[in-house]
Amino acid sequence: MPVTEDRQKFVYDFTEGNKELKDLLGGKGANLAEMTNLGLPVPPGFTITTEACKVYLEGGEEPPSMRDEVTAHLEALEERMGKKLGQADNPLLVSVRSGAKFSMPGMMDTVLNIGLSDESVAGLAVQAGDERFAWDSYRRLIQMFGKTVLGVDGELFEDALEEAKRAKGVTTDVDLAAEDLKALVARFKDIVAKETGRDFPQAPREQMDLAIRAVFDSWNGDRAKLYRRQERIPGDLGTAVNICSMVFGNLGPDSGTGVAFTRDPASGHQGVYGDYLQNAQGEDVVAGIRNTMPLAELERIDKASYDQLMQIMETLETHYKDLCDIEFTIERGKLWMLQTRVGKRTAGAAFRIATQLVDQGLIDEAEALQRVTGAQLAQLMFPRFDEKAKTELLGRGIAASPGAAVGRAVFDSYTAVKWSRSGEKVILIRRETNPDDLDGMIASEGILTSRGGKTSHAAVVARGMGKTCVCGAEELEVDTKQRKMTAPGGVVVQEGDVVSIDGSSGKVYLGEVPVVPSPVVEYFEGRMHAGADDADELVQAVHRMMAYADRMRRLRVRANADNAEDALRARRFGAQGIGLCRTEHMFLGERREMVERLILADTDTEREEALSALLPLQKADFVELFEAMDGLPVTVRLLDPPLHEFLPDITELSVRVALAEAREDANENDLRLLQAVHKLHEQNPMLGLRGVRLGLVIPGLFAMQVRAIAEAAAERKNAKGDPRAEIMIPLVGTVQELEIVREEAERVIAEVEAASGTGLKLPLGTMIELPRAALTADQIAEAAEFFSFGTNDLTQTVWGFSRDDVEASFFTAYLEKGIFGVSPFETIDKDGVGSLVRAAAKAGRATRPDLKLGVCGEHGGDPESVHFFHEVGLDYVSCSPFRIPVARLEAGRAAALNGKGGSDSR
Ligand code: ADP
Ligand code: MG
Ligand code: MG
Question: Is 269 among the residues known to form the active site?
Fold first, then answer.
């Protein structure tokens, strides 16, 4: 047999593809193929692959063999349909449709009716027995082709169409007769000639080839590029092109076009959801040119087609095992399927649909977990605007950071700060924000910008701060000089007017919209029960999904909580312990003075006095906490932040002392304090005297804290409680530091045991938050019974930047340039920080096989990071109480995904 060169295949008939081939055929093409193979009525056609697009984008030319393949497929199609593309007396017409792996605004719009020309329009009229229809199709072709392929301003055609209707005295396009449309075609051709300097192409194949090329080019259009960056879709996927033989919904009242969902994308309920428009083509149904009818009415107009459609919808749901959305056309009573895909849905519907599909036996629990995300759950937990409230919508932008915020409009940072100081709630409105706006952003309830996308400064910083943000609301005109914002339609918002912004939907309202608590939070708080007869359907669905996740997950979930109140909430939310209790929060308020005394102590006696004043207070805090978390582990971190955080501000104090000196009544204590502040002042406090270093240079400090923990534990034990305290040392860089602390701690614990007559088991471990600690984890594990990865500090020290200093200054630029896909403080940087975590976990366990491993940075509540920690084999993640449900769900999803051996979806 002769060896033939294995040529790449660039064109696939609809019968050759399937739904798994989205990378190659795009979403639309893959699903058209799937429907074809299911035996559904899809007009025949073929798909040009994304690979062909890639070749074109790289070299500026279609791969040479592609043209031949297109010719071969076209000929086969012509054969099958019994007519040739653009054939004068009986033309085959096709649509040219873009379709990438992910559907993307900005890609080329579909061109319908390709193959019509001055010649074949007459043939079409004869074949269809309808002259009006033929000219209507032709004018649509010139209009769509002119706009999307030749780049003519679409309004020129719209205006001409309006003009034709006005001249005739009618209001809709269906009222135009064949003669009117004929004249309109002439007019449209003039527009094309004038605007492009060439005639509308008459050769059918040329029309098709130009349209294909235009689809390829649209991959790199500005809007498409912007969207990809925002949604983090890789820029090199390319788009496929679908060539689909035309079916006609504009052949009279027994024809039409429609869209439908197999169930309600807002509630998840099964039923008949969709719209239908008689005597119309393509996008007419969603373009709002005429009033559509609810899909249910189709039953009355064309029962046969309606019944068939319902049957097909059921087939699709059962086949895709998910909500599908579809596009269809009816041509003279014959139903055609033009598109389907797994449909978008609201967060609430995602939960409901997942459980419904389990009930229907279509999917199992593990699969159900893949149908929802932690981000969706988080969305359901934000307080939201009351849906029943009357609202006045001003406009909408990009939902950049979720939440519902209400406040007075301010247009600069200075006013935001000033007004918020006097107790006003404000919304900061800017065209876009920059680092100078930081104070204003902090002072505001929410941020609204008219420019920029999901990675703009406003969006990044707001998400970092957990503030509500709507960005890129382009239809709102922001005039910061005049301090006003103008909405489409002319409504003006002046400084001081109240506005409400919804960071989950991107909507902006005039006036105060009432905010209601989320039922999902009410449920987690235990104020609403999933079992109750009148339980909210959404709450029931969330309850069930959480149960699936809890059954499935291997990772345990703990909370970062510093007091009994947070601890109790965490417990209600499902926390299985506290992963991080920060003791510094116990040294604030009135107790700050005692810390001051400790810092100022000149003699051992003074220091011991200060420490013994703090001891009972610390102990009381711990007793409360251990009681709240009875039976569950509580990891207490010894004092971590630089001491100067407990001292007065250096400038304020200097001024006070200077003024007092001028009055000649300088206060001895203030002078000592000022000296201490000067002494403790650091250029880089984050890298200064803090963490374990404090414990080693301030005699007795850590011993006092350990004693407070031990005594609290002993007291709880003697009260028949079950305290499970763990002592955690922060900022360790070398095992020697830990050994010294451990020796002292063991001595103190032994003393407490003897005095209280109880045996105490208090594991002692360390945070791993410095690269050196991670790199010497094998040694550190000799002295540590557990590791808790402090991924916030670890990220800062691995990257060499401090979050507070840099997030507002250059992260936007980094995100825009694609250096980060996402801030490393939001999602763990797997390659850098993550690889240290992985290595340290392995090395630590090599030394001590039962070493317990956790993480207590904010990443512990971030979905993608949770998956990573699962995969690395940590025992638990710890996050803020509010993120616990998200972490539980994602830990379940990670386990379900791994169980199936699949890979993570986007
Ligand atoms: P989009 O990606 O914007 O949904 P489509 O390629 O689905 O674009 O096409 C736009 C409209 O044209 C849709 O209403 C679709 O159903 C319709 N359409 C596409 N191809 C054909 C065809 N061959 N015959 C009839 N209508 C078509
Ligand atoms: Mg479509
Ligand atoms: Mg730290």
Answer: no
